[in-house]
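Build the 3D complex.
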Amino acid sequence: MDPIQFTDLMELADIIAERLGNPITIEDQHHQVVAYSIHGETPDPVRIETIMKRKVPETVLARFWKAGVIQSLMHSDQPVRIPSIQELGLGNRIAISIRKGTEVLGYIWVQETGRPLVEEDYGILRWAARLAMPRLLQKRDRYIKKEENKKALFWQILSGNCSLDEIHQEAATLSIYFPPYMVVVAGEIKCKENQWLSIQKELDYLLENLKETTPFSFLPLWVYDEKQCIILGGAKKMDGLEEEAGSFLMWLNNRFSVGKGIQIKTGGFGSVVNNILDIPRSYRQSLEVIEIKNSMPGEIEDIYGYHKLGFFRYFPVMKALNQEEGYSNVQLQRLVRYDQENHGNLLETLAVFLDHGGRVNQTSEILHIHSNTLHYRIKKIEEIGKIDLGEPLNRATIYMELKLNKYGK
Amino acid sequence: MDPIQFTDLMELADIIAERLGNPITIEDQHHQVVAYSIHGETPDPVRIETIMKRKVPETVLARFWKAGVIQSLMHSDQPVRIPSIQELGLGNRIAISIRKGTEVLGYIWVQETGRPLVEEDYGILRWAARLAMPRLLQKRDRYIKKEENKKALFWQILSGNCSLDEIHQEAATLSIYFPPYMVVVAGEIKCKENQWLSIQKELDYLLENLKETTPFSFLPLWVYDEKQCIILGGAKKMDGLEEEAGSFLMWLNNRFSVGKGIQIKTGGFGSVVNNILDIPRSYRQSLEVIEIKNSMPGEIEDIYGYHKLGFFRYFPVMKALNQEEGYSNVQLQRLVRYDQENHGNLLETLAVFLDHGGRVNQTSEILHIHSNTLHYRIKKIEEIGKIDLGEPLNRATIYMELKLNKYGK
DNA sequence: CCATTCTTTGTGGATTCCCACAAAGGCTAG
DNA sequence: CTAGCCTTTGTGGGAATCCACAAAGAATGG
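Done.
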């Protein structure tokens, strides 16, 4: 292709537009409009909105994401054809990623309203993408620096050892706004070691570019840590923020599991705080939710909020106390020993029985035993373990110790 | 009375015996035999055993204590007449305390086997008691020093900041033996401020002189603190030591409440330890039992052992966690608010209901309401508090939070 | 004052729980 | 092999629970 001179990307856009006979938009990696050609034909509504707001509407992006368009663009250096979507006012488009190696720096979009593109035009697009690359590289470097600073700031906040003044100052320079009420959400991602980096990029993309479509009103900061993604969400009002956090995790999982087998393994969020200095607590709590859920599979699958944990919330401190004192419940020990010596299943029976609130029918059905067998075992449990299940305090205690035992492993 | 010369208390004993025409024993404040007269008549079995072991048998002392004899001697400077107790092989006796001011240093015992004492003899006894006092004073000073050292040692052990070597060395010089298994018992005494000192003396007496009659095999150390009595009990075997600790508290209460209105308010004991360095833990636990029992009157009146506390055991750490996080259960809050606004009693209803394991009949009977009223309230509770009492986890959680709330105040 | 809502009490029937007793299957030791 | 113990299953009756519906009393606000 011919060598060519252009002073800025606007000029380049015009040149490409002329050659392809179609309007052009050049966007950076966050779909912010960097340049666009002079309109030849009537632009479609999306093009108008994109140029006016200098950013592709998030609804459109979300739709593209769902359809796998963005993913194709990110993983390929070839032009990708996007059929028109009538309901969004979106005509036919062809796009290509601007990239350096495997890293995507931006996109060139062709609005196919002039003439249909042919195979030869794809070569022009590839050539244009190469030309645009150096300019976007500069932008990217500045952006990455800022992103790194944001992540550093969030880590500083999460670690909890810095003053409010420092935080506010740094936040101001990074133009970050902290909403009045905030909550820390943590998600643990299930993936292979070598996938983790690319997943981070994907998440970055999601959180940066689809902010508006998340259940959160504000989404100022997020970081990654050992297959975990830690996110600060916020709102102007306290009401409903916990619900938003819950649906945010679902949102993340939905966006995420598209295509590959990657999924959020577990997720959790801490309590709502209205002070930046309380964020570390919310963070700790979100991690505790994950830890507890991981240690007790099947107990609280559908609980994500720290305050919905019920008595599980106390398990870490209870476990710590027990370790310090070398405590282990004698009554349960007796049952375990009996089970081992006699091939029994008293412990399991007790667990299921208590898990169903002492309802004989349900329990016996689940264990596939006769209700009288259950009665017999219960009596046995009370006798062997020296447990009085009739006493509510005892019953609650033994129920909790049982769960705590499970957690302790 | 005549001035008289005697080189030691043995000589004095002989002099008194001669004047009274009866055998004499002089004992220190711990009923250890300091001197005795040459036997005139045939000594009764108790006298023989007393002199041979150089100490009054504890069974006899316990009997005297029960009968209030010791108390009379301690609180009066007059001779006290003790009728014979056939079953213990105990003839008639008269005794008088040897005292300096209000402090008892020892006793003179007259075995009334020669001739019956008359009023005039009482004067001789009082005179003899005055004569014996200075010698016993020396003994007492040495004893008190030792007792103080013992108490200091125990405090050192309880505080937990001293090495095992230091402890063993000090224990050796004080000739204290630590049994293989030990437990700390704490009792809180209900008394007026000005009684506390004399109660300490009484307790000292009990623990020093009636060691053998306590349920504990070993009772090496004890101290006092702010109306609390902290006692180290022990045994050579682990089995049954907790039971012994429980009955020790009952024993103490029985001995103690004789006569005056003084009583053990609450008591508790920690876990059994087999290492001196673990004693502080057992101590902390015993205090926690007392604290928990005090904060929740009516819940666990008949529990004294730390490990019998059930989930109450975790309350201190749970409370600490809640305070740190500023947590308070929303569901219970809603009920409290409703009760306040509508003169309701949902919270009380819930508490009683859960305390009786969800048994409708018992609960409604206790609350003096119709069982359908109870049903109505339960539904109301679930509705107002947004609590699903059908779910065992929720139910256990709310039960525990309810108790924790009570404890938290 | 009345109307409305909240709360309590009453009735009745389907279901479940609790318990005692009996019988049968399985495992182990002599 | 058999006796003895542990475990499971079956039967049945009395008590308690759960639930729906109805009516009466108490409290509240207009």
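The mean pLDDT of chain B is 89.
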